[in-house]
Amino acid sequence: MRIGHGYDVHRLIEGEAITLCGVKIPCQWGLLAHSDGDVALHALCDAMLGALALGDIGKHFPDNDPQYAGADSLKLLQRVYALVLEQGYRLGNADLTIAAQQPKLAPHIVAMRETIATALAVSSGSVSVKATTTEKLGFVGRSEGVAVDAVVLLERINAA
C-alpha cells in the first residue's frame, strides 16, 4: 500500500460559481486559476501522485502551458489515475477536507463524492468529502480563498 497527501489553495474572486470535486456550485464567487480552479481535485491529484513519488500536478500539467488554460480538472484527475493504474495500483480510498467559509457546501457533498467515484470508476464508499469553515480565522475565514487537504490509500493491484 502507498499513502499520499495533497494540499492546494485557490483565491476566491468575484464570479457566478465555483467548481469543487467536479460539481459546479452557483454562488457569488469564482476560483482564480489557470485551469477550471477545482482546488479539491487538484489536491486529490497531488495526493495520488505523491503516493507513488511521481511529482505534483504542476509537473504534469504546468500552469504556464496554454493547453491547460481552463482545463477540466476531472479530465486531469482521470489522467493522473491512469498513471496510478499504469504503476500497478488502484485507489483504496480517498479522504478530502475542504476548508471554505462560504459558500455552504453540505448540500453538495453527496454529488461531490459520486462525481469523483464515477470519474475514477470506484465505489462512492471509497470517497469521503468533508467541508469545514475556519470559524472566520485566516484567509479562508476572511473568504479570501479555499483550501483542501486530500489523503489517499493506493493498493497494489493483484498483490500476492
Biggest sheet strand line-up: 4-1-7-5-6
Mean pLDDT: 93
Alpha-beta classification: alpha+beta
In N-to-C order, the SSE pattern is EEEEHHHEHEHE
Report the sheet-strand fraction. Answer: 25-35%
Low-pLDDT residue intervals, each spanning 5 or more residues? none
* Topology, number of strands: 7
Basic shape: globular
Radius of gyration based on Cα positions = 15 Å
Looking at the chains present, what oligomeric state does this protein adopt?
single chain
- Cα distance spanning the termini: 12 Å
Count of helical stretches: 5
For the report, how would you describe the main beta sheet? 5 strands, mixed
- The residue fraction in helices comes out at 25-40%
Primary descriptors:
two-stranded antiparallel sheet, 160 residues, five-stranded mixed β-sheet, 7 strands, alpha+beta
What is the fold's blueprint, element by element?
Layout: E1 2-14, E2 17-20, E3 23-26, E4 29-31, H1 39-51, H2 57-60, H3 73-86, E5 89-99, H4 109-120, E6 127-132, H5 138-141, E7 145-156
Parallel strand pairs: 5-6
Antiparallel strand pairs: 1-4, 1-7, 2-3, 5-7
Helix pairs in contact: 1-3
